[in-house]
Amino acid sequence: MNVLHKIREGIDLVLSWACAALFALMVIVGTYQIVVRYFFNSPSTVSEELLTYSFTWMALLASAYVFGKRDHMRMGFIADKLTGTPRKVLEIIIEILIMFLAGSVMVYGGWNIMGLTMTQVTASLGVPMGVIYTVVPLSGILIVIYSILNIVDLVAGYEREQREVKE
Hints:
This protein is mainly α.
Protein backbone atom coordinates (compact mmCIF):
# COMPACT_ATOMS: atom_id res chain seq x y z
CA MET A 1 0.00 0.00 0.00
CA ASN A 2 2.86 2.38 0.78
CA VAL A 3 4.28 1.80 -2.69
CA LEU A 4 0.99 2.89 -4.27
CA HIS A 5 0.88 6.00 -2.11
CA LYS A 6 4.45 6.84 -3.12
CA ILE A 7 3.44 6.45 -6.78
CA ARG A 8 0.48 8.78 -6.19
CA GLU A 9 2.68 11.32 -4.40
CA GLY A 10 5.21 11.19 -7.23
CA ILE A 11 2.57 11.76 -9.91
CA ASP A 12 1.01 14.53 -7.79
CA LEU A 13 4.38 16.24 -7.45
CA VAL A 14 5.18 16.07 -11.17
CA LEU A 15 1.71 17.32 -12.16
CA SER A 16 1.67 20.16 -9.64
CA TRP A 17 5.10 21.34 -10.79
CA ALA A 18 4.14 21.00 -14.46
CA CYS A 19 0.96 23.03 -13.94
CA ALA A 20 2.83 25.67 -11.94
CA ALA A 21 5.52 25.91 -14.64
CA LEU A 22 2.92 26.19 -17.39
CA PHE A 23 1.07 28.88 -15.44
CA ALA A 24 4.30 30.83 -14.89
CA LEU A 25 5.09 30.50 -18.60
CA MET A 26 1.63 31.83 -19.44
CA VAL A 27 2.10 34.85 -17.16
CA ILE A 28 5.49 35.65 -18.69
CA VAL A 29 4.34 35.16 -22.29
CA GLY A 30 1.10 37.09 -21.64
CA THR A 31 3.05 39.99 -20.16
CA TYR A 32 5.45 39.92 -23.12
CA GLN A 33 2.49 39.94 -25.51
CA ILE A 34 0.95 42.98 -23.81
CA VAL A 35 4.25 44.88 -23.77
CA VAL A 36 5.08 44.30 -27.44
CA ARG A 37 1.52 44.98 -28.58
CA TYR A 38 0.86 48.21 -26.70
CA PHE A 39 4.32 49.72 -26.23
CA PHE A 40 6.04 48.66 -29.44
CA ASN A 41 2.90 48.35 -31.60
CA SER A 42 4.16 44.99 -32.89
CA PRO A 43 1.85 42.11 -31.91
CA SER A 44 3.42 38.69 -31.58
CA THR A 45 1.60 35.77 -33.21
CA VAL A 46 3.96 33.25 -31.62
CA SER A 47 2.95 34.33 -28.12
CA GLU A 48 -0.75 33.99 -28.98
CA GLU A 49 -0.32 30.37 -30.05
CA LEU A 50 1.99 29.58 -27.16
CA LEU A 51 -0.57 30.92 -24.69
CA THR A 52 -3.39 28.94 -26.27
CA TYR A 53 -1.53 25.64 -26.27
CA SER A 54 -0.01 26.21 -22.81
CA PHE A 55 -3.48 26.83 -21.41
CA THR A 56 -4.77 23.64 -23.04
CA TRP A 57 -1.92 21.59 -21.60
CA MET A 58 -2.32 23.14 -18.15
CA ALA A 59 -6.09 22.57 -18.10
CA LEU A 60 -5.84 18.90 -19.08
CA LEU A 61 -2.94 18.13 -16.74
CA ALA A 62 -4.72 19.96 -13.91
CA SER A 63 -7.89 17.96 -14.58
CA ALA A 64 -5.91 14.73 -14.15
CA TYR A 65 -4.43 16.11 -10.92
CA VAL A 66 -7.87 17.05 -9.59
CA PHE A 67 -9.25 13.60 -10.46
CA GLY A 68 -6.37 12.07 -8.54
CA LYS A 69 -7.19 14.16 -5.49
CA ARG A 70 -10.90 13.36 -5.93
CA ASP A 71 -11.58 17.09 -5.62
CA HIS A 72 -13.42 17.39 -8.91
CA MET A 73 -16.98 18.68 -9.09
CA ARG A 74 -19.58 16.03 -8.51
CA MET A 75 -23.26 15.76 -7.92
CA GLY A 76 -23.39 14.07 -4.56
CA PHE A 77 -27.13 13.93 -4.03
CA ILE A 78 -27.12 10.12 -4.25
CA ALA A 79 -23.71 9.37 -2.75
CA ASP A 80 -24.27 11.75 0.17
CA LYS A 81 -27.40 9.86 1.18
CA LEU A 82 -25.52 6.55 1.34
CA THR A 83 -23.18 5.30 4.04
CA GLY A 84 -20.98 2.27 4.56
CA THR A 85 -20.77 -0.47 1.96
CA PRO A 86 -23.42 0.91 -0.45
CA ARG A 87 -21.54 4.22 -0.66
CA LYS A 88 -18.21 2.43 -1.18
CA VAL A 89 -19.74 0.30 -3.97
CA LEU A 90 -21.20 3.42 -5.65
CA GLU A 91 -17.86 5.24 -5.45
CA ILE A 92 -16.06 2.23 -6.94
CA ILE A 93 -18.61 2.08 -9.78
CA ILE A 94 -18.08 5.81 -10.40
CA GLU A 95 -14.29 5.32 -10.54
CA ILE A 96 -14.74 2.43 -13.01
CA LEU A 97 -16.96 4.63 -15.21
CA ILE A 98 -14.42 7.46 -15.08
CA MET A 99 -11.68 4.98 -15.97
CA PHE A 100 -13.70 3.66 -18.92
CA LEU A 101 -14.51 7.17 -20.18
CA ALA A 102 -10.92 8.40 -19.83
CA GLY A 103 -9.59 5.24 -21.44
CA SER A 104 -11.96 5.21 -24.39
CA VAL A 105 -12.32 8.91 -25.16
CA MET A 106 -9.07 10.44 -23.97
CA VAL A 107 -6.54 7.64 -24.43
CA TYR A 108 -7.95 5.83 -27.46
CA GLY A 109 -9.54 8.86 -29.15
CA GLY A 110 -6.66 11.15 -28.20
CA TRP A 111 -4.14 8.68 -29.60
CA ASN A 112 -6.07 8.50 -32.88
CA ILE A 113 -6.41 12.27 -33.25
CA MET A 114 -2.75 12.66 -32.34
CA GLY A 115 -1.77 10.31 -35.16
CA LEU A 116 -4.09 11.97 -37.66
CA THR A 117 -2.76 15.47 -36.96
CA MET A 118 0.96 14.71 -36.83
CA THR A 119 1.36 16.02 -40.40
CA GLN A 120 -0.43 19.33 -39.70
CA VAL A 121 1.81 22.11 -38.43
CA THR A 122 0.81 25.09 -36.27
CA ALA A 123 0.85 28.42 -38.07
CA SER A 124 3.31 30.37 -35.92
CA LEU A 125 5.23 27.85 -33.86
CA GLY A 126 5.75 25.30 -36.64
CA VAL A 127 5.05 22.42 -34.24
CA PRO A 128 3.08 19.38 -35.46
CA MET A 129 -0.47 19.46 -34.09
CA GLY A 130 -0.02 15.85 -33.03
CA VAL A 131 2.55 17.03 -30.50
CA ILE A 132 0.04 19.54 -29.14
CA TYR A 133 -2.62 16.80 -28.90
CA THR A 134 -0.24 14.52 -26.98
CA VAL A 135 -1.66 15.95 -23.78
CA VAL A 136 -5.06 14.33 -24.40
CA PRO A 137 -3.94 10.67 -24.18
CA LEU A 138 -1.36 11.62 -21.54
CA SER A 139 -3.97 13.11 -19.22
CA GLY A 140 -6.28 10.18 -20.00
CA ILE A 141 -3.57 7.71 -18.94
CA LEU A 142 -3.02 9.70 -15.75
CA ILE A 143 -6.76 9.70 -14.98
CA VAL A 144 -6.87 5.91 -15.52
CA ILE A 145 -3.88 5.46 -13.18
CA TYR A 146 -5.48 7.71 -10.58
CA SER A 147 -8.78 5.82 -10.88
CA ILE A 148 -6.99 2.52 -10.23
CA LEU A 149 -5.25 4.05 -7.21
CA ASN A 150 -8.57 5.48 -5.98
CA ILE A 151 -10.27 2.08 -6.30
CA VAL A 152 -7.46 0.43 -4.32
CA ASP A 153 -7.82 3.11 -1.63
CA LEU A 154 -11.60 2.67 -1.52
CA VAL A 155 -11.36 -1.12 -1.22
CA ALA A 156 -8.70 -0.82 1.50
CA GLY A 157 -10.75 1.78 3.40
CA TYR A 158 -7.92 4.29 3.18
CA GLU A 159 -10.02 6.96 1.44
CA ARG A 160 -12.57 7.04 4.26
CA GLU A 161 -9.86 7.53 6.88
CA GLN A 162 -8.27 10.35 4.86
CA ARG A 163 -11.58 12.18 4.45
CA GLU A 164 -12.24 12.01 8.19
CA VAL A 165 -8.81 13.53 8.83
CA LYS A 166 -9.46 16.33 6.27
CA GLU A 167 -12.84 17.25 7.76
